[in-house]
Amino acid sequence: MSYDRTYVSKVASGVERGSREFARRADDAMHAGGELLRAWNDQHPADPPQRRPAPAVSDPAGALVVDHDHAELFYDAGVYRLTQRRRLVNHGAAPVTRYLIRIAVDRYPGRPERSNRHYCAHPLTWDEIDLHAWHGEGRAEAMPWTVQHDRDAFKEVWLRFENAAGQRFPLYPGSACWIEYTYTVGDDKWGNWFRRAVRHPTNHLAVTLDFPTEVDPAAWGLHTSMAGDDMPLATAIQIHEFNGRRVFSWATDDPPLHARYKMEWTFRNGRVDAPAPRPSQVMASLGVIQDGDPLLRRTAQPFDLPAEADATTRVVDDLRQAADRISKAHTFGKGMGIAAPQIGIDRAAAIAYPPGDPNPIVLLNPRIVETSDATDSQYEGCLSSFDVRCRIPRPLQIHVEHQERDGQRRITIFEKAVARLVAHEVDHLHGVLCADHLPDGEKPIPVEQYRGTGTTWQYPA
């Protein structure tokens, strides 16, 4: 946040009055979704008027008070099931017609790149979540829901105060109601933590973790302050055992608005993490055809240009989307490229992104027509055989004939790293893989032995 920690601590304790800019930066740092900034504006009505961000919805959910909030996380046979019960009170002047809930998972907290790769390959799906919601005590009435955000590891859903028949039951001013919802997530996606964020004024907050005794669970909790510091919970976690279950319970009254509480645990006699998927498995899950598929060994069908100009647009768009998915799962320090046959399209198109350049080189009907005598040898990886790296020679300069969408033919000269990148993709369009260029007696090395991931190819000045 670029503020002195002492100043942050004083603001958090109420000794100092934080500025609006401080509230904005704190909101960004804590990913509070604008709630800190709105709270600051609400608490400083006499300050010069500021342009407040427009609310995302028209419902007066900001006037809600959570009288009772109880989250129960039950684990068994590799699956977590969360049941969340809340008693809501409308202290506003208008009826509330929907309520926003969030579902967020992080299998590898503190290791964002690994988590990103994991969820790109194994996104959280609505089928596995199996979300259900109810209104009223005893699950009196099922509540429909509408998706607000749908991301690989994060979902936001509006629970609607109505039933399946379309009959509405808004939460009117001065009224209270119970809502309950439940969903499931496998332990391959959940991770050993559960966080509660206080987004509305809350009178009572409780969390229960219910685990099998046989895994010998241990649990602890943390409170994240407004300054971003992790501190132990102010009250102890209670532990009870019965019927082969060990239950950890914790509760607090009148938690501060925007406070964050996190429960963490370990299974001391539990399941060992499943091995991480192989790089080739990750690429296959992202839609990249793997070595052994006959399509990779065929010469791709050329475009008849300009008659098929529209077809090139569709194929290049597919390649861009594939590259975007893949780049979220892996860091490419040397740039990256992908050819149409690698995503199952038998057409002569490829794209290549030089290192640090967001704009790809587009190659339509390309062929290498001239190469330099000078060569060098570098390691290359291929999305279609990503478990290995191959050290192969390539020319330091290549001349590539290719076409524009209007049919015009061009010859473009590429050098050094970009030449290597482009040559690799042109090979794919002619049924050639980089391992085919290995010198006699040399073999690919396992990716685990390769030490150049994330770095650029090196060339003399």
TrEMBL record:
It catalyses: N-terminal N-formyl-L-methionyl-[peptide] + H2O = N-terminal L-methionyl-[peptide] + formate. The active site is at E425. GO terms for molecular function: metal ion binding; peptide deformylase activity. Keywords: Hydrolase, Iron, Metal-binding, Protein biosynthesis. The keyword Phosphoprotein does not apply. Binds 1 Fe(2+) ion. SUPFAM superfamilies: Peptide deformylase. Its EC number is 3.5.1.88. Fe cation binds at C382, H424, H428. One of its GO terms (biological process) is translation. InterPro entries: Peptide_deformylase, Peptide_deformylase_sf. Its cofactor is Fe(2+). Removes the formyl group from the N-terminal Met of newly synthesized proteins. Requires at least a dipeptide for an efficient rate of reaction. N-terminal L-methionine is a prerequisite for activity but the enzyme has broad specificity at other positions. Belongs to the polypeptide deformylase family. This is Peptide deformylase. It comes from Stackebrandtia albiflava.
